C-alpha cells in the first residue's frame, strides 16, 4: 500500500479549541456495555485515527458521535455546542458527515442518481470536482450501485457526503478490501481535503494507511482508549502499535 508520504514534519500543534470533543462516552447495545468512558478530541484541520482490533469499539464511537446509536451517555461537543441529544440529521446539518463501513450507497440507483440525490451545499463537492477526483464515477454513471467494485463504492460513498460540504468527516475503514491503487487514490483525496482545512476522524485496521495520513492515533482496547500516539512518535512506537492490532 503506498499513499504519497506527507511531509515528515511533526504533527501540527492542535489549535486551542477542538472542533470535536467526546467526553466520557459510554455506549450500549441492549444490555451490552461496549464503550467505557471514551475521551477524544479532533482539532480543526487534523486527521485523527482510531485503531484497534476487531470489536474494540471504533465503529461504535463513530455511530455514537453521529447519534445513530442513541443508547449512550457522556457528552459530544462540536464547535463548542453540545450535540449529544440532537437527532442524527441535525448533527449532520451541523457539518459532520459519516461514511459507514458498509458504505451506504443506494444499490438500485445508478451512480449518477446516487451522486445527485444528496443536495449540494455551498462549499461542498460539485459534480465537476467529483469527476476530476474520481473519473471512474463518470465512466460508471449509468451502472447501478450494486454493480460497482468495492473501491468504486467507497469513492461514491465519500463523494455523496462531501457534497454537503462537511467540516468533519468520519470515515469507517475506507481502505478495507480495496486494491492498493484505489487505497492510494483515497489516501491522496484525504490529504487534499486536509490541506483544504477539513478535519477527519478515521477508523482503520490498516496501520500503514493510518500512519501515513493521521496526525494522531487513539488506540482502542475493549471499549476504551488505552494509548495516544502522535505522528512524530510513530516510527519509534511502530512495534507497540502492531502489537495492539495483532490478534
Ligand atoms: N449492532 C450490534 N449489536 C450488538 N453488539 C454489537 C453491535 N455492533 C457491535 N457490537 C459489539 O460492540 C463491540 C464493539 O464493536 P465495534 O463494531 O464498535 O468494534 P470495532 O472496533 O469497530 O471493530 P470492527 O472492525 O469489527 O467493526 C463488539 O463487541 C461488537 O461485537
TrEMBL record:
Residue ranges constituting the ABC transporter domain according to the UniProt record: 20-247
PANTHER family noted in UniProt: HIGH-AFFINITY BRANCHED-CHAIN AMINO ACID TRANSPORT ATP-BINDING PROTEIN LIVF
Keywords (A to Z) from UniProt: Amino-acid transport, ATP-binding, Nucleotide-binding, Transport
Stored Pfam families: ABC_tran
Domain of life: Bacteria
A GO MF term: ATP binding
InterPro entries noted in UniProt: AAA+_ATPase, ABC_transporter-like_ATP-bd, ABC_transporter-like_CS, BCAA_Transport_ATP-bd_LivF, P-loop_NTPase
UniProt keyword annotation of Nucleotide-binding present: yes
Tagged with keyword Cell cycle: no
Protein name: ABC transporter ATP-binding protein
Family to which the UniProt record says this protein belongs: Belongs to the ABC transporter superfamily.
Amino acid at each position: 500500500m503506498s499513499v504519497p508520504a506527507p511531509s515528515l514534519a511533526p504533527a501540527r500543534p492542535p489549535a486551542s479549541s477542538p472542533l470535536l470533543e467526546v467526553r466520557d462516552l459510554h455506549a450500549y447495545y441492549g444490555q451490552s456495555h461496549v464503550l467505557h468512558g471514551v475521551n477524544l478530541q479532533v482539532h480543526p484541520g487534523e486527521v485523527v485515527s482510531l485503531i484497534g482490533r476487531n470489536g474494540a469499539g471504533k465503529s461504535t464511537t463513530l455511530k455514537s458521535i453521529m447519534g445513530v446509536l442513541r443508547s449512550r451517555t457522556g457528552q459530544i461537543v462540536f464547535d463548542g455546542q453540545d450535540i449529544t441529544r440532537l437527532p442524527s440529521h441535525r448533527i449532520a446539518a451541523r457539518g459532520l458527515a459519516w461514511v459507514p463501513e458498509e458504505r451506504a450507497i443506494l444499490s438500485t440507483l445508478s451512480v449518477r442518481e446516487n451522486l445527485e440525490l444528496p443536495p449540494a451545499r455551498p462549499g461542498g463537492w460539485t459534480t465537476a470536482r467529483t469527476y476530476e477526483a474520481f473519473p471512474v464515477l463518470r465512466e460508471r454513471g449509468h451502472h447501478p450501485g450494486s454493480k460497482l467494485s468495492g473501491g468504486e463504492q467507497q469513492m461514491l460513498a465519500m463523494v455523496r457526503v462531501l457534497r454537503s460540504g462537511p467540516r468533519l468527516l468520519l470515515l469507517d475503514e475506507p481502505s478495507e478490501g480495496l486494491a492498493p491503487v484505489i487505497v492510494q487514490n483515497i489516501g491522496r483525496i484525504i490529504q487534499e481535503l486536509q490541506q483544504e482545512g477539513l478535519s477527519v476522524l478515521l477508523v482503520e485496521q490498516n496501520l500503514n494507511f493510518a500512519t501515513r495520513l493521521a496526525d494522531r492515533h487513539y488506540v482502542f482496547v475493549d471499549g476504551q482508549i488505552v494509548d495516544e500516539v502522535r505522528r512524530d512518535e510513530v516510527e519509534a512506537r511502530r512495534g507497540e502499535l502492531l502489537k495492539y492490532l495483532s490478534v
